[in-house]
Amino acid sequence: EAQKETLGFQTEVKQLLNLMIHSLYSNKEIFLRELISNASDATDKLRFEAIAKPELLENDADLRIRINFDKEAKTITIDDNGIGMSRDDIISNLGTIAKSGTAEFIKNLSGDQKKDSKLIGQFGVGFYSAFIVADQVDVYSRRAGLPADQGVHWASKGEGEFDIENITKEERGTRIVLHLKTDELEFADGWRLRNIIKKYSDHIDLPVELPKQQTEAENEDKTKETEWEVVNSASALWTRPRTEVTDEDYQEFYKHLSHDFENPLAWSHNKVEGKLEYTSLLYIPARAPFDLYQRDMNHGLKLYVNRVFIMDQADEFLPLYLRFVKGIVDSNDLSLNVSREILQKDPIIDSMKSALTKRVLDMLEKLAKNEPEKYKSFWKAFGQVLKEGPAEDYANREKIAGLLRFTSTHENSKEQAVSLADYLSRAKPDQDNIYYLTGESYEQIQNSPHLEIFRKKGIEVLLLTDRIDEWLMNYLPEFEGKKLTDIARGDLDLGKLDSEQDKQEQEKLAKEKEELVERIKKALNDQVSEVRISHRLTESPAILAIGDQDLGLQMRQILEATGQ
Ligand code: ADP
Ligand code: MG
């Protein structure tokens, strides 16, 4: 029976709706991209489920999206024959936001519409974007495989609540009717819709159809059934040869994949043939997602097998320190029945993972070399994450090390802009070490007494002040044969950088001051493990150093903070 009920939106939905309507007014047309994207996801899901259960196709295997409009009724209708939704599906999908961290995210919005619109774009506006242009939305849906009388009608004005009732719906799939706001009627127009579809959805691997343009006479004839015309290219973008894909196409596809509003910094599209056959299209976003450091952040690639969509967030194809990469991988070697469990065990995946990892690192190297400005913004957004690399991916540590950027005494700024290669290009001819100093902040260590001797000798020192830096250095013993050396540790030996004369003077001094050292040792008793004459200071009288084997200061703080 048609149990009708009225339900309230989850608080976060209400907040998001409100913000969206007020922040996205300058980019209204994206509502269509979002709805087409959902319809396309829904047909992908059906195609996937139908592999195991062909009967779900119900003698209607020509999957497509149809978009119609009615100027007089002031409506736009988006109709798909995809997987559809049951009553329960619709209540949870169109009444709540399942994404983790949503409440946190909404709390962080500033109220500044320009900034918020970018953030919301990144968060993914999704279905609710329908309310940017509509003051009433009706959704009619039936899940594939359920009987016709188990359809549902969902209706809402996008305020606090929605109505839901059971209906009979013969065709499976979802039909969404947008009742346009009075000042959004421009969207109920064939040319306008066609342009938006071309602009945002050309790459969708599914026919997007509009009613065929008709002559006046044909229009008069109301008995004639609508004829449909495909308006997009309807071939998966990654299957086209690179030379036939424009930058705009790549960028739009990225936005479709990632829900980002901004263009990506870089992408890499490759078809691999030989022992393994697959196509990958990988993107580096321009900005960090809000949940980059959350354990359950959405990441991973979209996996296709022979162009059939299999799963989102397949995180077996890239290491965690590259979790900011968005993209797809389409394999010819995996089975359509592949599951996450299989992915985790399949040796094919390991070789794909190392190839894809290398591809991303190469892409970053190229970006750093050819577009340093873009690399700078990449580093700002994702540098911290890349620093996790040497620990997670020891095999690639040298390559990753080349991509790292640091603050250094060479520049008078705390921007992390110096690469290890830059450092080495300026190193003294006899220098065997890459020197660094760690600390809590740039302000705190830029005038550290540890640096005195280095300043005097004109030797550059990297200044590491990110929490992760000491940990990173544990996994980065050397770069291009030069040892990475903490200048705050043990007895600093400048090796060949000290002249013979320096050394003699140091020894002489040590002899002379032996007695003083003993006295200080006694006085400090067991508060220090050793007292030594130091050659590192030129101005300060004394310095505290850390033993070679001891934990660094940052590590101590981290352990203390976690109660160890
Ligand atoms: P997202 O697409 O990022 O999951 P949306 O807000 O766009 O978020 O959609 C929410 C959910 O509603 C989708 O995940 C899907 O389960 C469901 N949904 C939306 N549109 C359709 C549709 N046309 N057919 C089937 N399910 C849909
Ligand atoms: Mg969506």
TrEMBL record:
It is found in: Cytoplasm. Residues 496-530 form a coiled coil. InterPro entries: HATPase_C_sf (IPR036890), HATPase_dom (IPR003594), Heat_shock_protein_90_CS (IPR019805), HSP90_C (IPR037196), Hsp90_fam (IPR001404), Hsp90_N (IPR020575), Ribosomal_Su5_D2-typ_SF (IPR020568). Keywords: ATP-binding, Chaperone, Coiled coil, Cytoplasm, Nucleotide-binding, Stress response. The keyword Nucleotide-binding applies. It comes from the Bacteria. Residues 27-184 form the Histidine kinase/HSP90-like ATPase domain. One of its GO terms (cellular component) is cytoplasm. Residues 1-340 are annotated as: A. GO terms for molecular function: ATP binding; ATP hydrolysis activity; ATP-dependent protein folding chaperone; unfolded protein binding. ATP binds at residues 34, 38, 80, 85, 93, 99-101, 122-127, 174, 340. The keyword Magnesium does not apply. Belongs to the heat shock protein 90 family. HAMAP family: HSP90 (MF_00505). Homodimer. Molecular chaperone. Has ATPase activity. This is Chaperone protein HtpG. It comes from Entomomonas moraniae.
